[in-house]
Amino acid sequence: MPGAIVPHLPDRGEERVVTAFWYFIVTLAVIAAIINFVIAAGKRDQPVVALVRGLAGVVALAAAIAVVVGKAFDIPHPYLTAQTVFLATGVFIFVVLLAPKYAERTTPNEPRRR
Question: What is the residue range of 82's domain?
């Protein structure tokens, strides 16, 4: 509409730059939680593996919930920059997707389970 007045949005600094990235983070966290919960359920015969996978699923789900709640209540993040978010995403992927795989490793003398 010509001549319409558009309200000015508050300046959120660099957080505005990574806003689209939050959808990716939440989606990745939920998918990681689902993967870890399904693997934990499938590995019930191996209690340590199931526990590690279950904890990784809880961590992933907590991260997704924290992002959604933080955005819903507009909680300010004083040290949030694009670089910090990128680094935290890498650490997150390692902790919830790659680290639990080490709990499934067997020692060389132990027979492999199928």
Answer: 33-103
